[in-house]
Write a structure and sequence with these properties.
Structural class: alpha+beta
Distance between the termini: 69 Å
Helix content: 40-55%
Strand content: 5-15%
Order of helices and strands: HHHHHHHHEEHHEHEEEHHEEHHHH
Number of strands: 8
Radius of gyration: 25 Å
Largest sheet: 4 strands, antiparallel
Strand order of the largest sheet: 1-2-6-3
Shape: globular
């Protein structure tokens, strides 16, 4: 019995050494230095006690085996047994949003222009704050705090491309309509999007709250009323590179963000053109030329849940995605919405994005009643003002989010536990703090 117990403890020690060392090497590959140091340290610290106990006189080996088995049972219970915390779902908005009110549209207004005068006549309370934001260096400015000439030039080049293709979001519809089942069409456009680089895709019926009320940017007349009468919306996501996001709020993150807006535009334009060639109207919604609120469409299309930071939390990549949408009358089959109580519960206890936000634009605490449901209300004005100060789109919240880790076996095991168990969510959050820290290191100003 003692010999068997000793052998068991030696195997446990070797397993701890191998497992944590393997995670250490994974962390090195992911450029997560802190996680690598912690993993290699734990590989040594957790392998020594069971091996040492194996060589001590009885009854130490038996006690050691009992301790290990108890710890394993607790871990399995926390990891695999469904233990639910079921927050109320976020609800659906009862009203539409005017695109002229979003910060990206307000940031484009030129003082003295007719659009500028018209908007601040309608919303005089926004003028002082917006003028203060306009006085800052601005996105991709060489005078911004985190300016970096090469990354900013690359980001600007990507935005130039999305600007150039904005007039191609719609087009002529083929006169002869091809008939197929909704399931066939849905599978076809999903396959097409995935083949061009999308990581996930889904379909929802287009709801009134999905669309803006008035044009605030892009094609069309500023202030024109939006009447998008398509029945269906197809949403998809593209992945932002983990390595570049890990530099947030530094210059590499805005370069990557702009690059993925290009990828999203490419996919949306191809899918929309594909649909029109088959005889159905379709419009692509791309960066700077939306008629829909992409995260709301994507949530209802089953791509994820809206988290504390106001971004879509996808199952495999968390908020580390960019979204694209195509609206159409092609008959499609709707997917189940992405409402996920496990995400809402995790965001409720995590708060890493709120703690790490450089300007406190993400709320700490519980969700509050907003419109027709509960959600965390982001201070978009403060957030956008910080972007114009540092010159990038920040993404610190995306960087620190535990859901943002790479789509790999090790991290997916953790995601699986988080989906299953409220206990696991709290344990995994604590471990995420241990391995990756509660807040990211400060990013220094880069060269101009």
């Amino acid at each position: 019995m003692d010999a068997a117990a000793s052998l068991f403890l030696i195997c446990v020690g070797l397993l701890a050494l191998i497992s944590f060392s393997a995670f250490g090497f994974i962390s090195v590959r992911e450029s997560e230095r802190r996680a690598a140091r912690v993993a290699f340290s734990l590989a040594v610290l957790l392998s020594i006690p069971p091996v040492a106990a194996a060589f001590l006189p009885p009854p130490v080996p038996i006690v050691g085996v009992a301790t290990v088995l108890l710890a394993l049972f607790a871990a399995v219970a926390a990891w695999f047994i469904p233990i639910a915390e079921n927050p109320s779902p976020g609800g659906r908005p009862s009203r539409r949003i005017d695109e002229r009110d979003i910060m990206f549209a307000r940031g484009r207004l030129v003082p003295g222009s007719p659009e500028y005068e018209a908007y601040y006549a309608m919303r005089p309370e926004n003028k002082i704050g917006d003028d203060n934001t306009r006085a800052l260096p601005g996105l991709l400015s060489s005078k911004a705090q985190l300016a970096e000439s090469l990354a900013f030039a690359a980001a600007g080049a990507s935005f130039d491309l999305t600007e150039a293709v904005r007039t191609h979001v719609d087009g002529e519809v083929a006169p002869h309509r091809v008939e197929r089942s909704p399931e066939t069409w849905t599978a076809a456009i999903k396959d097409l999007a995935l083949s061009f680089g999308a990581v996930d895709a889904g379909v929802t019926e287009l709801r009134p709250y999905h669309t803006y009320t008035h044009v605030g940017r892009g094609t069309g007349a500023y202030g024109e009323e939006i009447d998008l009468d398509h029945r269906w919306a197809f949403a998809f996501s593209v992945e932002m590179d983990h390595g570049r996001v890990s530099h947030a709020p530094g210059a590499p993150v805005v370069e990557e963000s702009a690059r993925q807006y290009v990828e999203g535009a490419k996919i949306a334009l191809v899918v929309a053109s594909f649909i029109r060639r088959l005889g159905y109207p379709a419009r692509a919604h791309i960066d700077g030329n939306y008629r829909v609120i992409a995260p709301l469409v994507a949530r209802d299309a089953g791509l994820g849940e809206i988290g504390r930071m106001g971004l879509l939390m996808t199952p495999r990549l968390g908020p580390r995605v960019r979204l694209g949408v195509v609206t159409t009358d092609m008959p499609l089959a709707a997917d189940r919405p992405g409402d996920d109580a496990s995400v809402l519960d995790f965001c409720a206890v995590c708060q890493k994005c709120a703690v790490s936000c450089p300007v406190g634009a993400i709320p700490i605490g519980d969700r509050t009643p907003v419109d027709n449901g509960l959600r965390w209300a982001i201070d978009s004005e403060t957030c956008y003002r910080y972007w114009n100060l540092v010159g990038t789109d920040c993404a610190t919240c995306m960087r620190v989010c535990p859901y943002s880790h790479p789509d790999s076996l090790a991290h997916n095991l953790v995601r699986s536990a988080i989906r299953r168990s409220a206990t696991a969510r709290r344990v995994m959050l604590w471990l995420d703090d241990v391995f990756y820290g509660r807040k990211p290191p400060t990013v220094d100003t880069m060269e101009t």
